[in-house]
Structure formats: structure tokens, C-alpha cells
Amino acid sequence: MGRAQWKKIWVGSAGNMVEWFDWFVYASFATYFAGAFFPEGNETAKLMNTAGIFAVGFFMRPVGGWLLGRVADRKGRKAALTLTVTLMSASALLIAIAPTYSVAGYGGAVVLLIARLLQGLSVGGEYAASATYLTEASPPRHRGFASSFQYVSMTAGQILGLGLLIVLQRTMSDEALHGWGWRIPFVIGALAAAVVFYLRRTMLETEVYEESGDDTPDCLKGTVKALLAHKREAFLVIALTMGGTVAYYTYTTYLTKYLSMSAGLPKETATLVSFCALIVFACVQPLAGGLSDRIGRRPLLITFALGSTLLTVPIMTLLKHAGSFWPAFGLSLLALLVITGYTSINACVKAELFPTGVRALGVALPYAIANALFGGTAEYVALWFKDSGMESGFSWYVAGCAAVSLIVYLTMRETRGTDLNRVGATVEREAPTPVKVASR
Predict the structure, then answer these.
(1) Which residues constitute the signal peptide according to the record (predicted)?
(2) 8 Å CB contact between 308 and 270
(3) What pTM was computed for the model?
(4) Looking at residue 216, what is its pLDDT?
């Protein structure tokens, strides 16, 4: 991989990292600001309110996927990526200055809701634009490796958020964190997004987009009409995302709360478990992505789905009785290693299904729909099961979603080797030279 490719990956990943830092710190700091926007009452109910607003952000992601996917296919990946980070900066700033319930009643919750809607709009376009950009910017034989940096940067954003939480937990009193300290990460996120905006203004467009051989008419690029010509691929994105997104959000955003509220670990220990496990998780993404360039995408997807189907219930049950850091860390890491089969390559798998003229929209809209239905609601569903006294039912729900995706992985075609400029063509591997057999 040349310097130009690495530069594209770096700039695309840096922006993605900031986007997901802003997205995830909402979930990481929810236990500290839940009481700021809602009246006194049941602690689980407060968390359900903030989780509900968290889920609402996901329901804006299809809108963001449609709008910004259209921009990416018509104006270029660079234009969409610059716009997404602008929206994210504005939303983080809104949360940072939102008034509390004691000051403005439910007005603060309304500001929080508007900010999450903007975040959903931004992330809905960011995922597809960055997935498409990283896939197109890499050499064909290293596409899985390069696109894995999407989840490296996503996880890095969450690691930075958790790291900041750990620092604040150890340098501020619990009262200060609940009172005003939770605003700090949103201020940092807004400033970091402004820096990334500058970086993305100077980023290079991908050669695949600029030299596209796609025969989609310009008037149809990035439109739903053009996407409907690829209904099977769009449905495939929804189905293959279903199990992966539920498992991912279970073991990232919800895990800290589960370890604290259900396993009984101190908040500081639960945060440290997630932080350490996510560091290892981020490091193995390029290894798994590189492996997919050698053996194909389907083996990794099948491994993930089979592991999640069979191991989710045992892992969640054991986590509830972990009792200390090391057992909780080991089980959390095992779960994250299982879902690596999905996270490391899902960006390139989806991008490899569509032609250039509708690639960003084809990834964005179906993926956002699946996330709205399954990923965004994962934490709320988990808390609902807990509040209903049937907490173990959530583990079976996650396993069931993975089982559905397993069926899809077993029946889908292999996408490794797809020529991004010619849908269905494979040009990376030369056909074997015929062997001449001497006649007698």
C-alpha cells in the first residue's frame, strides 16, 4: 500500500473516530447525566428515558443515510464526509450546553433529543461514506485489511470516551461528575470535530469514484430508484447487519451498565473492563480484515454468527456472576473476539455489493434501517427485560438475531475479488493458464 492510500485511510479514520467518540460518550456518560434531564424517581426508569433518546438517534440514521448517501454518490465521498462531521460537531455542542431539568424542566430533554436527532443524521451518513471511502481507497488485494480500520477508528472513539470517563472518575468527585463533569466530553467532541472538518476539506477523493465505469445515469446516481434495481443486495445488507449490530452494541454500549447494574461491579471497575477489552478488540480488527483478503469474507461472517448463536447466553450468564475484574475482562474479550468476524469486514462486504453510482446509498440506507430496528434498540430492550424481571431473555434475543444472520451468511455469495467498477466482475486473480496435454 502506497503513501497516498495510507493518507486516505488516516484522514477517513480520524474523522470516523471523532464521530463515534461523540456518538458513544452519550451512552458511556448516561449514568451521570440521566438525572439531570428528568425528575427524581426510579434509577432504571431514568436510564430507560436516556436510552430511549439514544434509540431515537438511530431512527434518524435512515434519514441521514438517504440524504448523505445521496450526497456521497452525487457530489463525492469527500463532500459527504465533510458534511457529516459538521453536523456531529453541532450536536455535541448542543448536549454540552443543554439546560438541566431544574433550570428548564423538560426543555433540557428536548435539547438533548434534538442533539441526538442531529447525531443520528450525521452517523447515518458517516458510516456509509467512510465504509465506501475506505473500501474504494485501498488496493483490491488489501481491501478487507484497509476497510477494517473503520471499526478500529469506531472503537478508538469509544476507547477515548471510556478513557476520559476513567480519568474523570479518578480526578473528580461523584457529585461533580453528576453535576457538571459529564459535559466535558461533549465540549471536547465538538472541538475535535472542528479540527477534523479542516482535515477533511483537504482530503483526496477516491480514484474509483473519479474514474467510475458505472453506467448509472447521472440523474439516477444516489437515488432510491437506482437502489431499487438492487433490492436483493439491499435486503442482504439488512439481514447480515441484524445479528452483528445487536451483538456489537450489547458488548460495547450496554456492557458497562450490565456489569455495574447486574453483575454488581463498581462503576469504575465496569468502565475499566470495557476499556481494556476494547483496546484488544481494536488491535485484532486489521488482523481479521487481512485474513479475509486471503480466505474470503464468508468464513469470518459464519464464524461470528455461529459463535454468537451458541455462546451469547453462556457468556452473559457468567458475566452476571463474574464478581471481579479479571473474570469480567476475560468473558468480555471473548465476546468481542467472536463479533470480530463481523466488525472487521462488514464495511467492505456491503460496499462490494453495489455499483459506484449507488454504493454509498446502498450501504447507508439498508444498514441504517437495520441499526434503527436492532442496534439502536438493543440497550432499551435489555433494560426492558431487566425492568420486567426477565433479564436472561435479552441474551436469548441476541442469540436469535445472530441465528437469523447465520442463515444469510450461509446462503450469500462471496464478495472478495469483486471489481468495484464492474459489478459482478472479478479481476484481482488471473485465470489459470491452461495446461497443454501432449497427444499420442
Answers:
(1) none
(2) no
(3) 0.83
(4) 67
Residues 194-218: tens digit of each pLDDT: 888 888 888 888 888 887 666 667 7
Give the amino acid at 300. Answer: L
Of 162, 152, 139, residue with least CA distance to 1? 139
Distance CA 135, CA 204 (A): 14
- What does the pLDDT look like over 307-348, one tens digit per residue? 999 999 999 999 999 989 999 999 999 999 999 999 999 999
Based on C-alpha coordinates, what's the Rg of the chain?
Answer: 22
* Nearest Cα residue to 286 out of 345, 335, 242: 345
Contact 37, 54 (CB under 8 A): no
What is the per-residue pLDDT for 209? 85
C-alpha cell at 435: 495446461
Hey, what domains does the chain have and what are their CATH numbers? 3-203+223-417 (1.20.1250.20)
- Displacement of CA 181 from its chain's centroid (Å): 26
Residues of the chain with pLDDT under 50: 424-440
Q: What is the DSSP string of 396-438?
A: HHHHHHHHHHHHHHHHSPP-TTEETTEEEEE-SSPPPPPPP--
What is d(CA 123, CA 149) in angstroms, rounded to the nearest whole number? 16
Amino acid, res. 35: G
Angle between helices 325-343 and 231-251 (to 10 degrees): 170
The H-assigned helical ranges of 344-377 are: 346-351, 359-370
pLDDT at residue 434, rounded to an integer: 47
* φ and ψ at residue 429, rounded to 5 degrees: -115, 130
* DSSP characters over 25-87: HHHHTHHHHHHHHS-S--HHHHHHHHHHHHHHHHHTHHHHHHHHHHHHHHH-HHHHHHHHHHH
Check residue 297 and report its DSSP letter. Answer: S
- Position 47 scores a pLDDT of 67
CB distance 30 to 94 below 8 Å:
no
pLDDT at 132: 92
Residue 124 has what pLDDT?
83
Residues 384, 239: Cα–Cα separation, whole Å: 24
**Cα separation, 159 vs 138, whole angstroms:** 25
Q: Please report how many Cα atoms fall inside a 13 Å half-sphere around the Cα of residue 202, on the Cβ side.
A: 8
Contacts of 307 (CB under 8 A, 6+ apart): 338, 341
